[in-house]
Amino acid sequence: MASEAAADEASDTYSEFIDKVQRLSNVKQAGMVLAWDQEVMMPEGGTPARSKQRSALSTVAHELLTSDEMADLLDELEAEDLDDDQQAVVREIRRQHDRAAKVPQDLVEEISEVSSEAMPVWHEAKEDDDFSKFAPTLEKLVELKREYAEHIDPDRDPYEVLFEEYEPYLGIEKAEEVLQRLRDELVPLIDAIRESDADLATDTFEGDFDVDTQEDLTRDVLDTLGYDWDHGRLDTAPHPFSSGNQFDARVTTRFSPDEPLGALMATVHEFGHATYTLGLPREDYGTPLGESRDMTVHESQSRLWENHVGRSKPFWERFLPKVQDRFPEKVGDASVSDIYEAANEVYEDNLIRVEADELTYHMHIVVRFEIERDLIRGEIDVEDVPELWNDKYEEYLGIRPDSDAEGALQDIHWSHGDFGYFPTYSLGSVLAAQLFDTAEDDIENLDEKIADGEFDDLHDWLTENVHQHGSRYTTDELVRQATGEEYTADYFLDYVKSKYGDLYELDDYQ
Amino acid sequence: MASEAAADEASDTYSEFIDKVQRLSNVKQAGMVLAWDQEVMMPEGGTPARSKQRSALSTVAHELLTSDEMADLLDELEAEDLDDDQQAVVREIRRQHDRAAKVPQDLVEEISEVSSEAMPVWHEAKEDDDFSKFAPTLEKLVELKREYAEHIDPDRDPYEVLFEEYEPYLGIEKAEEVLQRLRDELVPLIDAIRESDADLATDTFEGDFDVDTQEDLTRDVLDTLGYDWDHGRLDTAPHPFSSGNQFDARVTTRFSPDEPLGALMATVHEFGHATYTLGLPREDYGTPLGESRDMTVHESQSRLWENHVGRSKPFWERFLPKVQDRFPEKVGDASVSDIYEAANEVYEDNLIRVEADELTYHMHIVVRFEIERDLIRGEIDVEDVPELWNDKYEEYLGIRPDSDAEGALQDIHWSHGDFGYFPTYSLGSVLAAQLFDTAEDDIENLDEKIADGEFDDLHDWLTENVHQHGSRYTTDELVRQATGEEYTADYFLDYVKSKYGDLYELDDYQ
Q: CB within 8 A of B189, min separation 6: which ones?
């Protein structure tokens, strides 16, 4: 009897805890709706009120997460005998609570204010192509984020602490090892491609492509890929993104007449994010069990669909006719090889990350990673960034920016104070390859199914092995369970070497 | 020195109070964004998550409003020497706080649950044309709302207490007096119209009107009326509504091929609401000084634009050419009189409130008001409602519903537990006439300006006399200041008697 009473008590405590967790989650979700609306629907004049609304929701969420009641409940529950699911929820909320509670609210607000002010400063510096205008602000943000990390853990590398905001479980050592390997192995591959005489059909998509027709095509592609319109929608936004929950996961894209392939691939990328979100268990909405794992896993889903599906030959076997239907005069004569080559061209002289191809993209990330890591660790000074940036571009990509606007000022992230975020883009791509390789082993004739427009098996595999688990497992454990191996860059490197070795007829890589 | 210190202290207390008030307001505003999105943008499958998000924001808002800290701050501030603006803010928050704090949270949640469940029950009962299916639910809602009123004030008429949720300052006695006068004076007018031989050009808008062209026309009309697209947008929704704040006030409408005039007038109505919202002082966003007065005043703004502007001859002098441009084959030959008559037809046998004309509309309201008042007061039983409803329609409108679906089940409001809301529709129309009459006195040649598409003076007058004050003054005081008189039905009755007397050539009314 005593033990049953104890169990009831545990269950009462747990259910009080879950109420608070769900409220927190719903307030955050509300904030995401406000953010989506601001990007997609809000008239421009709405900004002053919207900023205050979003800030109020952030404050409410912060107070819910860091309240004494939440702290007490976590303490009590950690002393209880919980089942695995309950333990996972407590683990995730404990981590979020500790990070949030350790940082003084004043500092959080100061970072938020300095970032808000940093945005226009960064924008102007970029317009004027003058890094020195942004330098004092960047200096301040680096200091504040170092201070932020110190509150969370004064005994650890501050960059590690910041990185864990976006990828809490893989570990900075693993991340560094993977990024180092990408650098070591991709730089020679990129060099070899630059020296290749292969003649790819890179002009397949030249000309003006009507944007309404592009949108019609995009909706058709999303249909075939299995996007669930009862739980999603497609809109346009200045920067493609996805947002939502398992009941309502929306994607945005942008269309431009001269970039039909870019728009389509960007949409397939966002579709991958949305598909992850829609695969989260509905019955666990509002707790970590019904919330996605962090950036690495999320990005693995978008990259898997964008690169391993969307840039593959089987994909184009299915979709070339749809493109030709819409644009008969432009691509009526194109072959699957033509379109495959166009979709996988490695650009010779692109300096801009967001316009990069699948391969060189990672060198853009490695540059940013190395610089921001050393900045936060205090090993380099802000004033040295532009020169270092250009040197690294020359070393890793064989091209040197001749302006700050196309160099260290090109990305907005640092003006948000987002240090530690960039690496997850590459870590996600690496994971995408590892997951896709396993899926290919598990699903019979996956290539043929893709060519036939049958995506159910791939959806099922991803749902079973990734989506349905929400944040139940840590990232490393999730990878182990899904692939039977530790997280590794092997599959990604094999994939790009083989793919680009074939495309560019590289003897050393085929 | 002592008094300065005291003033500082008051000011610290006040600024702590204002922080909480603004947070509360922003959380409510966030809830409105979620509601707008749900009606206009959300994929249908998003409902389960959205309900939880909105419920979480309601709970957060309720806790912010009823917290001990808020109670203490109100107590302290009421003992301080505040200026007029500060006193107004304290008065409004005190009223909201007291109402919210007196009702147990359990009861609020029960009402919310029963209303949620009531919606589909009402819907099914209406589909099946069977009031008895809805009766037990209505009975329950009446009981719960009576209980709700009793918590707020056990010594007053419960209907009065509920009515004050929507119109807190005019007083139920004044409301009853006005509605009684409408009944007494409009029933004979409606009778006279029914007996009139006047032949109005009511077929001016017959046929199918392309909805895209209707939308183009509607946007043009909103442009000319002065809608600020930098702070607003137009979308379609199943039921037209407006929503937002002084930075972002949106309108929705619905288009149907056979109802071009209905869509346009509905949009002008919502434009009136949005114009009020956009006229609220921006610097007071987030406090009652920057929030609209209640339903009566809000509805006065929509009705003023819809009826006194949109259904007037000068309006059609300006806009008929725009309609003719879009639909030359349908209305190319129509005169201003034709279109004016079509816009002001009094329907002979319309049983449905939302399809009613400007005049008979108020009899629909009086029926609902009398029935819900007597229900809440316990003077009639739920089972008697359908018969009573039909009797009153026969008495006031000369037509008798032969089904519950077209009778007591037509409106959704009672299934929401919204008792006390209906009267504000008529009270707002009455105020619209009083305000418009004053504006006509104050603005030189207002009719000519409307005919010329010059609306600045009217906007300025409304902003100066109504919008800019937010909730600074109570409703009665606002009316007194704007019109120099007490709130009265005189102007409305004069207006409709003269307008319909002319239209229907009624000797006794010209």
A: B359, B496, B497, B500, B506, B509
DSSP state of A307: I
Q: Which residue out of B270, B299, B345, B370 is catalytically annotated? A: B270
Cα three-residue angle B273-B275-B278, rounded to 5 degrees:
115
Distance in angstroms (rounded) separating the CA atoms of residues B275 and A32? 28
DSSP-assigned letters across all residues of A194-248: HH------TTTT-S---HHHHHHHHHHHHHHHT--GGG--EEE-SS--EEEETTE
Nearest to B26 among A23, A52, A244 (CB): A52
Q: Which backbone phi and psi does A204 adopt, to 5 degrees?
A: -55, -35
Q: Give the number of beta-carbon pairs within 8 Å between A and B.
A: 120
Task: Give residue-wise pLDDT tens across range B488-497.
Answer: 999 999 999 9
Distance separating alpha carbons of residues B361 and B350, to the nearest angstrom: 10
Q: Do A45 and B248 touch (CB under 8 A)?
A: yes
Pairing of strands B242-245, A248-253: unpaired
In 3D, which of A424, A430, A425 has the Cα closest to residue A486?
A430
Cβ separation of B49 and A245 shorter than 8 Å?
yes
pLDDT at B9: 60
- Chain A CB contacts of B44 under 8 Å are 230
Please indicate whether, in this complex, the C-beta atoms of B53 and A29 are within 8 angstroms of each other.
yes
Helix crossing, B84-102 with B68-78: angle to 10°?
140
Region A291-309: mean pLDDT is: 98
What type of residue is B235? Answer: D
Give every CB contact of residue A466 below 8 A, 6+ residues apart in sequence. A276, A279, A293, A297, A300, A301, A435, A478, A482
CA distance to partner chain B, nearest, from residue A29 (Å): 7
d(CA A166, CA B384): 63
Residue B33: closest C-alpha in chain A: A34
Once rounded to an integer, what is the mean pLDDT over residues A267-294?
Answer: 98
SS3 assignment, position B360: coil
Burial class (CB in 10 A: 0-12, 13-18, 19+), B333: exposed
User: What one-letter code names the amino acid at A288?
Assistant: P
For residue A7, is pLDDT > 90? Answer: no
Cβ–Cβ contact B60 with A under 8 A: yes
User: How many angstroms away from the CA of A50 is the closest CA of chain B?
Assistant: 8
Helices (DSSP H) in A284-384: which residue ranges? 295-303, 313-326, 328-331, 336-343, 361-376
Write out the two tokens for A89. Answer: 């929820």
For residue B216, with 0-12 CB atoms within 10 Å meaning exposed, 13-18 middle and 19 or more buried, which class applies? Answer: middle
For residue B260, the model assigns a pLDDT of 94
Q: How far apart are CA B341 and CA B361, in angstroms?
A: 17
Q: Of the spans A192-201, A449-458, B192-201, which averages the highest pLDDT?
A: A449-458
The amino acid at B340: Y
